[in-house]
Amino acid sequence: MSDEKPQYDSNYFKNRVVELNNYLECSNFKYHTLGKPDISDEEYDALYNELVKLEKEHPQFKVKGGITDKVGSVVLDNLVKAKHRQPLLSLKKAHSIEEVLETLDTVKGQLFANGKLDGLALEIIYKDSKLFQAITRGDGVIGEDVTEAVKTIRNVPKVLANGRSGIYEVRGEVVIPKEAFHKLNAKLHNEDKEMYANPRNAVSGILRSLDIAEVANKPLAFFAYGIGEATDTYLFPHHLSSVLLEMTTMGFSHKRFRTLGGNRSKEETKKWVEETIEKFTKLRESYDVEIDGIVFAADSLSVREELGATSQYPRHSIAYKFPASVGTSFLSKVEWQVGRTGVLTPVAHINPVEIHGVTISRVTLHNPAEIERLGIMIGDSIIVSRQGDVIPKITKVLTELREKHVEEIRIPEECPVCSSDTILNSEGNFLYCTGVSVCGGRLVTGIEHFASRDAMNIRGLGIGIIRVLVEKGYLSNISDIYHLHEFKEEMYKLDGFGKASIDKLLDEIEKSKETELYRFLYAIGINGVGLGTAKRLAKYFDNSFDDIKGASPSQLEEVEDIGEITAELIYIYFQSYTNLEILYDILNRSGVYFMEPEENNLTKWFDGQNWALTGSFDFASRKEWETILEERGAKIASSVSKSTTHLLCADGNETGSKMTNAKKLGTTIVFERQLAEAIREAREMDNAEISFF
Ligand SMILES: [Zn+2]
Questions:
Q1: Predicted model pTM
Q2: In CATH, what number is assigned to the domain containing residue 187?
Q3: Residues designated catalytic
């Protein structure tokens, strides 16, 4: 299949519109009625947006009464239904500043803006100042009566502080704070219960629970953002912003809002909208609750009433959604790239999709196991996600939208670069080329790694000169490095290097022959063997290279932190005849040899302790911290397990899976500053011990 976007005929668009409609309808049902969403809100929005775009471009195929004609949610069956006195419609969504300005152009007078909370819309009705009923939005006309549940929410007044006679309807959003949401999910996870997909889903689930005691346990909060019917108009404010301020005197909470005065030019409005988006985008991270956009609206209550509503949306407001971090696309082909260690990585070529202003056309699929896990085929509709500014990934394959002409992704049996056989490990997550010495895909980077500081530390053998030497044919594998002196005269003539630098390089190569076993183990680039693993291997096998070379997978697994996969990878490496030949050349012909490792006589503050590290550090790099801890007797692991005694984390870093595990397992958590302080103190006082508690 070609890399180009396939040319689709009108039949395709017609089918796609119908399929998207059906799929979104199903998702709606799962989300609202079953309370079990199968796709995230953002994924839903991405598909919805595609549908809107298709229907706009091909209006003849629009499905009448389809998804794009319907208002938000559907009413549940197991709760009592209640009718809103005035419709509680959801807001029209905007994805660009232009769309916001288009709506605001029709609004007279003062403007209002506040964060669009990601929770559940709710109307609370007071009768003669007493909480009488609380109704969810439902379909905008009929919602569910959740009065008893809402009475348990701490910041909802049961009686209005300064009385109002008759009906007083407060509209707002029920939310769960971010932290509480994560705690709740962690708890559900620990109890082996199903977790909530997102905060909104959690709120909806909790509020609709019929077990009121259970609801009262949960940290829900209500933030007012509007008003419905109010019969007592004595001293009634004229603006929404004033209404919200007045509500605080009655006992309600609201979130920060901004206003812009009525005497405003188009330019001023535009500037204010841009500024508001910028401010709330910044605020978003620090907010204790999730906001997914900004509501821009008319502030004057009379203007709001005048503008009224369509059957779907009020005309006085528009919800600007923060740019989505997901988009829809489809897989056009898979290319296999060969990395330094010979691992073949499948790279998905996808139909270009713009997310956060960046056009994405290639996404890594990691390994064959991931392909299997996703169940992805060439031609499939996919969801691509780019959370924050991280590397994009395929989060979902929409098999429901699968076309007839999909093709299976073939796992190559031969390396695409050198045609050597490939091997797939038993877990299916490592596919690699067996042509160590010949594979061009890994040669340059493999040599660069071999020469790097933590490996053989050959200064002057950088990527630039390696490329030249490979091209000239002087280097075709790592053992050739030690034969480079045979090409000395030729190398002197190379452009851009000069005699002196070549002499210096050859000198460095000579010096590198005296090394340590662990450095060499790391240098030769066995899959899964990083510096730490190399050290542990050397130590476990008493610095005997021959023992390591001859070890069986089960013997290798005895080494701390070496699992089944790494053991298998090490074993396979030493089974390759080409590899053994290269090693023999380096060690026996060129005379690379291993010094006995020096035992340091530093005080072993961390003897017998197992440390893991998380976050990005300030005082020293992660590698430096590892060295410091190891020199002082600690063992370093890459993940937190039962045997981990300490977790070193960056200051202020309270999240992440290692942290979660450490908290669960009761591992001692040490912050970077704490460790730095403790070490400083111990050195000054010449202490033999460091303790953190
Ligand atoms: Zn290859």
A1: 0.50
A2: 3.30.470.30
A3: 116
